[in-house]
Known about the structure:
The protein is of the alpha/beta class. It has helices at about 10-20, 30-45, 45-50, 60-65, 70-75, 75-90, 90-125, 170-185, 190-210, 230-245, 250-260; strands at about 5, 135-140, 145-150, 155-160, 215-220, 220. The protein has one domain (about 5-260). The longest helix is centred in the middle third of the chain and has 36 residues, at about 90-125.
Amino acid sequence: MKLNFIINEYFLLTKALQRSYKSKKDPFWKPWHILDEKLWKKLNNSLFYQLINPGDYGLYTSLEVSNPKAEKIYKNLIKQTKNEFKKIFKTPPFKKLMEETQAYSKTVQQRWSKKEKDIYSFLEQITGLKIPNLKPNIIIVHPKLSCGRSYSEIQSIVWGHKEDWNSYSTVYLAHELLHLIFDYYKIPLDDLSHSLIELISDNELRFFLNKGGKYFKENDISVGHDNLRSIEKKILPYWKKYLKQNKKNIIEFYTQMKNI
């Protein structure tokens, strides 16, 4: 598996505008509030303003805008949209955001590269699955955007989050990769499979990288999704027995846990 780390400036901008609206009390976003008000007054009735604030669909929009093939199809629309984007790219808030995102991306890549081989070996051992030859795009955003999500349909992961504890970004990149791996092996995306991903990455991989730890907590910070905790605690005794098996198969274990 080869990770392709990228920064998509179009997507970075749309996510920043969305987050600034939700984080009005954070002084970091104050310049963005001012910028958004200016855009609203100037462009609120335009298609462009709808494109830069469309929720999760913004990922697909931004990738299309930066796609040369799409530009041929939507020539006039994308030309107009790109021109508006480029104006905002020159503003001080965006320049600052981009510089900090580039520095963050470099750090994330360095930490991942340092442990990459060990992580793949660990994941193969604990799942009993061969790491598939995928080449996902890792779309890095500013850590204050608190993004972490995989998109199997376009083989992409969006990532950007502050380091809540040691190895945080590395652990959660592995978490999102496991979503792609599970999808590759046709393991259904449901609360049980998500709970297994958390046991593998958020817990066992965290223990492995940090040389120890406790289930579901790191430095008094809750680890994992609260809504999955009851499932994880229910299957934890079975999980510990699974870890002692010489030959592991996470697909078989998933099927067994479906029936308890």
